[in-house]
Design brief:
Layout lengths: L2 E5 L4 H9 L6 E5 L3 H9 L1 H8 L3 E2 L4 H11 L8 H12 L6 E4 L3 H11 L4 E4 L9 H13 L5 E4 L5 H12 L4 E5 L3 H6 L7 H5 L3 H8 L1 H11 L2 H5 L3 E5 L22
Parallel strand pairs: 1-8, 2-3, 2-7, 4-5, 4-6, 6-7
């Protein structure tokens, strides 16, 4: 069966302009597919529904982009979730903006408040496995909705938990603002984990750096699950979608050299 994954063909500068323009008049969310997400997209109908409900889908993986170019001659632009999160915090938000961080530790939330000057940052810390506990999930959703309207909500609880939360918030239609499914980005920003050197990122080797850094945690994902992408590409079409008009008109400051290479 042929599967289609529609995405927004943007690099970091383009993605930043799109999310800056969203505003808080409605709710939307951002997903950033990497190889593991694409495999889950093929396997899990619920995950496909969550992706199809996203306001923005930015390709996160340089490996995926290179595979598409080699196998199909298809050229796609890459905007990693970690780069987008760092640029949003550094370039878009100010002290007056209401932000929400879901996941991460109390210390990490304090680090972000101090580092970026974000006194209005609200921290929501759901327990492990909360998406499988009705009451815990409800508590998390309500806490996010109470913090609404927000400019950005950073969902840092890993995939597919963060996509489930985003999809539920959209279905409930109570929260307003833009949520970003950001995975481990907060760990990188606060120093809990180190990102690969820039040359490894641009060479498509960030996965190798992470594997060497955390072999027990990531060996199954990268060495056993990851190679399935070669077979899946035969029945999966990644299709750029038309840009949609968003709900506000704030444009981001121009990206500096550091923002484009982090």
């Amino acid at each position: 069966m042929k599967l289609v994954l529609e995405f927004d063909d943007q690099d970091l500068a383009g993605a930043l302009a799109r999310v800056a323009d969203f505003g808080a008049a409605s709710f939307g969310y951002v997903v950033t597919p990497n190889v593991d997400h694409v495999i889950r997209y093929a396997d899990d109908a619920g995950f496909r529904d969550a992706y199809r409900g996203a306001s923005f889908v930015f390709i996160d993986s340089r490996i995926l982009a290179r595979l598409l170019r080699v196998v199909r001659g298809q050229s796609v632009r890459v905007c990693t979730g970690s780069d987008l999160t760092a640029a949003v915090l550094a370039r878009l938000v100010g002290a007056e903006d209401r932000l929400v961080l879901v996941g991460g530790s109390t210390a990490q939330a304090a680090n972000l408040r101090e580092r970026y000057g974000l006194p209005a940052l609200v921290h929501v810390s759901p327990p492990m496995g909360f998406v499988h506990d009705h009451d815990a999930l409800e508590d998390c959703l309500q806490a996010i909705e109470r913090a609404s309207p927000f400019r950005f909500c950073f969902l840092a609880v890993g995939s597919p938990q963060q996509e489930i939360v985003a999809q539920r918030l959209r279905a409930r239609a109570r929260a307003r603002g833009l949520a970003l499914c950001i995975g481990a980005s907060v760990n990188f920003l606060t120093g809990a984990e180190r990102r690969a050197p820039v040359w490894m990122q641009h060479a498509g080797l960030e996965w190798l750096y992470r594997l060497v850094s955390s072999p027990r945690r990531l060996a199954s994902r990268y060495l056993l699950r990851g190679p399935r992408i070669f077979r899946l590409l035969r029945r999966l079409e990644l299709r750029p979608r038309e840009p949609q008009r968003s709900s506000a008109s704030r444009a981001p400051p121009e990206l500096g050299e550091d923002d484009q290479t982090t």
